[in-house]
């Protein structure tokens, strides 16, 4: 073991901490910005369309580019691309903080999406290349817990920064954390890349991937605004009264099918590819990605609906709503801390199943118990166990997906895994959001049917409540003349949370069923009692067959 190798081995856990901060950056940023939007709107005088794009352009760019950067990291260097991604992310955050109008802010948010799409798959690839055995399970547990907990911590931090300082600090906060990531990764994580990868020439696949996933995610996040079948009155574009969304879905499927066809032909011809489709012959990789997509669909139901319920049905401010979500973060952290001891008794697949079952039970309990006047115990206890479920399922599922993937393919495999989760999340937000807001509209209308028949203005207010996703409830409740409308909307919003939770339960149950083909992992790394070794930062440390194709060195990018 040379001097650099020994240093990286000794500092590997500090490297894990730096990678976790990098993951926290991109997860936390989206929730912080959501909380800061009202202040941004007031400061920059954003239009309705600009408000929508400030939040959605990041997700769109992020999802469209994930596949591209995974393959790039294998060739360019995983540590190098992570550092570049953090630099892009922090620089674009600074541009966001200096924004003087909506166009500037939207462009900077798009650039943030580019940086974020570099960071997420690269962090996974680095963990896969750096850790082995039980230590890899611990590393993935920390990675998964970071995702779950930061989704809950973000609103708290965003609410505090916005109220105590200004919305600009929702972006400035990324600067010090970005510096910590760069220093930590450079000092504590060895570089790794695919050796003798050859010249990359699959640029058509790059464009096809970006177009296909871009169309798919755009259709999912814009479906409610444009209409899923018939065009809404506010839809910017329509096709003779019909929505463009079904057309975009069909186009995305055709484009992605063409991508798979092209990549299969290039793999058969031994040409460079964006994504090696032969990876899907690995059972744990193929089946694990199906599970990741379906589980992600269900997991994001709670994150979408409960913040709205806390703020609009319970009249909490953004900071209070964020604090009410903290039990989720606590449960997620506790789960990650217990994975090492549980791994002596449970295989990774069993821990994934345990996590998904905890999520199902927690969401079902919430759906049954929640009322418009429920106290925080009613939400806090299910949130805690839900967080534990996320902590168990997310990390161990990631480990399962990558466990049989050769190290030299880590970047590609990580990008596929990240894309599966992102598409699942977008699908979950679309499906569960539709369930939530449809129930809000129909429930409010049914509770006020007599008043709507007697006074058309009541119907207009009900439409306004539905369009605002419940944001007008508090204002209507302050006026005695419209208090009844507010009460009906609170009841309907609560019912919507319950319906969305049941839909999430159904999705998670399907996800649980998809774990059956994964079997019970019993590799050497997973057998209780075996002590995993950290990967040495040299070629010999990789799995058999990888030594000739992967290099891990200590050189700076």
Briefly characterize the structure.
This protein is mainly α.
Please name the defining characteristics of this protein.
single chain, 557 residues, mainly alpha, Growth Hormone, Chain: A, 3 domains, two-stranded antiparallel ribbon, globular, disordered C terminus
Task: Set out the fold topology.
Elements: H1 3-10, H2 12-44, H3 48-76, H4 78-97, H5 102-130, H6 133-164, H7 169-172, H8 174-188, E1 191-194, H9 203-226, H10 245-268, H11 283-313, H12 318-324, H13 326-342, H14 348-369, H15 376-402, H16 410-447, H17 449-454, H18 456-467, H19 473-478, H20 483-513, E2 550-553
Antiparallel strand pairs: 1-2
Overview of this protein structure:
The chain has 20 helices and two strands. It folds into three domains: 191 residues, Growth Hormone, Chain: A; 70 residues, no CATH class; 251 residues, Growth Hormone, Chain: A (Up-down Bundle), CATH 1.20.1250.20. The C terminus is likely disordered. The two termini are 22 Å apart. 75% of the residues lie in helices and 1% in strands. By secondary structure, the chain is mostly helical.
